[in-house]
Amino acid sequence: MKDEPESASEMTPSLVPPGPKGNWLTGVMPEFNRDSLGFVTRIARDYGDVVRTRFLYLTAYFISHPRDIERVLTTDHKNFIKPRSFRTPFFQRIVGHGLLTSEGDFWRRQRRLSQPAFHRERTNRYGEIMVDYTERLIDGWRDGETRDLHQDMMRLTMEIVARTLFSADVAGDAEDVGRALKEIAEPFASQATLKWILDNRLPTPAHRRFFRTVQKLDDVVFKVIGERRANGADAGDLLSMLLQAQDEDGGRMTDRQLRDEVMTLFLAGQETTALALTWTWHLLMLYPQAEARLHAELAEVLDGGERLPTVADLPRLPYTEMVIKESLRLYPPAWGVGREAVTDCEIGGYPIRRGAQVFMMSWVVHRDPRFYDAPEEFRPERWNAEEARRLPKFAYFPFGGGPRVCIGNAFAMMEAVLCLATIARRFRFSPAFGHHVTIMPAMSLRPRDGIKAVVHAH
Predict the structure, then answer these.
(1) What is the 3-state secondary structure (H, E, C) of 139-184?
(2) Disulfide-capable partner of 402 in 73, 75, 88, 229 (CB 3.0 to 4.6 Å)?
(3) pLDDT, position 182
(4) 1 inside domain
């Protein structure tokens, strides 16, 4: 681990940050679309910690120093709202005014009402569900078969979140729901394009198809909410907590507010953990020493692999947790965080105008050699307590940070560790012959053609 350097942006006398000019009309949009990950990596390397760019008529800044990121997300967070992309018709249609998109007093009220559902003693009860559903998934796996691990993990986390969120068993409908979620995610693979802009604002075929698909999920969610309100029973799930939550004036969430929060939790809770597990399997296949150490820990803690993991085992599985943390470093599902400046301000010594879009790319910061030794390598042991303490704050932010840090981050970490342990105690994997893994940086960091792997029982 290297000492924290001074921000390069604070050492320049210029009042305008450097950055690529791009096309006179579209700015850097074409270059960003051709290779999003390569683009954000190159501009940080070539121009420094604060980079000024333009997407069509929008001025955008990319910041890459932890000190500046902390200012946006924590110190001066009231001066920043969610980015313009979160206010597009497509995004608003999915999550409405849930925690992900709402602002100000309304967001603070919703956060207070939702927080009790994620208290540790409450979420710990879901550990057994997570392990049971994982066992149910892998009971059908056979030694030597080839599977798409991304597809499997998406199915698994969808079933878990449906069960823990509103006590629904969607095993029989998993393929239909999974197809709908995939259709919803596809348009976000090309946000910075003219097609994306037109599809959002005009009744194009893609626009109509998107809204029809979201309506199908709405029908399911509103039906569950209506049934639960009618019987008034506490099913022990997250929806029950949200239904019971009330503010100091006795006010409760409306059906629409419940729908927005449920949809936000369903989509975020399902995909984030699925991708964390997907990329973890990919990395373990590439680094057999880390895989061997993981299996050794599981064998020791789980009686030679004879019993299933429980929430009580989590403190005794430090390396398993390090594996997940390191996977989130190299392949953060939410590979960047965006904000919009509410008033004129300053970041890293540069003036930032009101309305400017500000992006903090965890993909870039998590791989910065100033903060990580051998940053491209998968080294779970770098998350031991001593090394982790030396890491600058906000050099690692897979769940965002500040007051708007992901409300379900502890839930997601528990789920990822328990699912990883449950599967790895019985299986390991090797890459399928001829399958090449490519990254699709859309709304989240997905494998474009899945992760094909050969299953090996042990």
Answers:
(1) CCCCCCCEEEHHHHHHHHHHHHHHHHHHCCCCHHHHHHHHHHHHHH
(2) 73
(3) 66
(4) no
The tally of domains found in the chain comes to: 1
For residue range 8-47, what is the model confidence (pLDDT) as tens digits? 444 444 689 999 999 999 999 999 989 999 999 999 999 9
- In this structure, the number of other CB atoms found within 10 A of the CB of residue 409 comes to 14
SS (H, E, C) 309-327: CCHHHHHHCHHHHHHHHHH
- 311 lies in a domain? yes
The rounded distance, in Å, linking the Cα atoms of 378 and 75 is: 32
Helix pair 255-286, 288-301: axis angle to 10 deg: 110
Is 116 a member of any domain? Answer: yes
- Backbone phi, then psi, for 273, in 5-degree steps? -70, -40
With respect to residue 3, please indicate whether it lies within any of the assigned structural domains: no
> What does pTM read for this prediction?
0.91
Residue pair 20/43 in contact (Cβ under 8 Å)? The answer is: yes
Flag whether pLDDT at 297 surpasses 70: yes
The more confident residue out of 193 and 287 is: 287
State the DSSP string of 10-23: GG---SS------B
Return the HEC string of 338-367.
Answer: EEEECCCEEECCEEECCCCEEEECHHHHCC
Which CATH number characterizes residue 435's domain? 1.10.630.10
Instruction: Give the domain range for residue 124.
Output: 8-457
Could you tell me if 383 and 320 are in contact, meaning their C-beta atoms sit under 8 angstroms apart? Answer: no
